[in-house]
Specification:
By secondary structure, the protein is mainly beta. Helices cover about 15% and strands about 45% of the residues. The strands form three sheets. Strands 1, 2, 5, 7, 9 and 11 form a six-stranded mixed beta sheet that branches. Strand 1 and strand 2 form a beta hairpin. The termini are far apart.
């Protein structure tokens, strides 16, 4: 009888410690990279010049990062024949907000689709000196299997200059179905 109690207590202690350790992986970044659930995406050392896709995986999640170059030129208003000259780019190979005047708002849209067989977490992150002027309509959301959405990005710069950087669309996909319920708590 005493041996059974000791064995049961040992098993319960092991389960408790495993759960505490698992929750630690969820909420801290102080774990080895291969085991991180919450590991936030680090700022790139160099910004991309063309759209690229990178992949990474951990013990519990696959991470896909679509890196999109972003640029804009903010200029003083200039007129020609009583017309203010601006230029908005329709280039699909980058988020080029064009040549805009101070405090002019320009919107671009990202079409995001989940072609995976599981629910995923999507995060929109901007980097570079352009990042302080870009606002995303949604920056962190869950996308169900097979869904698609359009995310609006708005640029509004109040300082004259050339701004560059990139906008990353980070997708976190759980490796195991039972982890889908934890997606709201997982950082990108």
């Amino acid at each position: 009888m005493e041996k059974k109690i000791i064995v049961v207590a040992g098993i319960l202690s092991f389960i408790f410690l495993a759960m505490v350790g698992f929750m630690g992986f969820l909420i801290t970044d102080n774990t080895p990279t291969g085991f991180m659930l919450s590991g936030k995406t680090a700022e790139p050392e160099e910004y991309v010049q063309r759209i690229t896709r990178e992949g990474d995986e951990s013990l519990f999640f696959d991470k896909i990062i679509d890196r999109i170059p972003a640029r804009v030129s903010v200029v003083h208003p200039r007129t020609e024949n009583n017309t203010i000259k601006v230029g908005v780019s329709a280039d699909t190979n980058e988020l080029n907000f064009g040549v805009v005047i101070q405090n002019m708002s320009v919107r671009k849209f990202l079409n995001i689709a989940s072609d995976d067989a599981s629910t995923v977490k999507i995060c929109i992150v901007s980097y570079g000196n352009i990042s302080s002027f870009i606002r995303a309509e949604q920056v962190d959301f869950i996308m169900e299997k097979g869904d698609s959405t359009e995310v609006m990005l708005e640029f509004n710069g109040d300082l004259v200059g050339n701004y560059t950087g990139e906008v990353d669309v980070v997708t976190k996909k759980p490796k195991y179905g039972f982890l889908e319920s934890l997606l709201p708590f997982v950082a990108c």
